[in-house]
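Re: your question from the hallway

Yes, I did run it. Sequences:
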Amino acid sequence: MKRCEPNEVARTIIEHFPREHHEKDPFKVLVSTILSQRTRDENTELASKRLFDRYSSPVSIANASPEDLYDLVKPAGMYKQKAGRIVAIAKLLVERYDNKVPMELSELLKLPGVGRKTANIVLSVSFGIPALAVDTHVHRISNRLGWVKTRTPDETEHELTKLLDEDLWGPINGSMVEFGRRICKPLKPLCGKCPVKECCKLFLFPETAER
DNA sequence: AAAACGGGGGC
DNA sequence: GCCCCAGTTTT
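Structure:
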C-alpha cells in the first residue's frame, strides 16, 4: 500500500474480508437483518432459515401472530420484540406497500424496528443502492484508523459519506463486520494480523489514539 | 441520556 | 459467571 488514503485502505480491507450476500430478496434480507440486530450472525442464520421454511412470504407472516414465531426466532434473542415487529412489518407491507419492501430510506424508516443501519443494509444488499450501514464495527474501526473523530454512529455515517467513494459504501459494510469480528475486535484487537496496521492510528500511536 | 429487550458464545 | 453481539424504541 503506497499511501494511507481512506479509499485505498478501505479497498484493502474489502479484499481481505469479502462478504458476499447470497440472499438478495428484500423481504428476507429485511427480516434476517432485524433478527441479527445486537446478535451474532451464527445465532440468527438458523432462526432465519427455519422462519422462512415455515413462512416464506409477507402474506403468510401477516396472517400469523407474534406468538407463532416465538420458538422459531428465540435463538436470535429479544424474540418477543423481534417477532412482534416482523409480523407488524409484514402487515404493513401487505396493507400499504403492495406487498413489497419500499426502496426509499424514508419509507423504510417508517417500519417498526427499522433504523438507519437496518434500512441501509436493505438498500445496499437488496437494491444495490449505495448506502453506508454504520454499526458498532464501522464506528469503532473508523475511529481507530483515524478516519473520523466521532462519538455516535450517525456522525460517523455523515463523515464517511464524504470520505469514501460511493462504490465502496455497500462492500465496506459487510467487510468491516468480518474484519471487526476476526481482527479489529472491540477489546483485544489482533493488530499483528491486521493488513492495514501501518495505516492505523491505534497501532501507530496507541497512547493517543481514540478507543 | 439511559433503560429495556435476550439467547448464545467466548473467555 | 460475566460481557459482548450487522440496534431500535421507549422512558
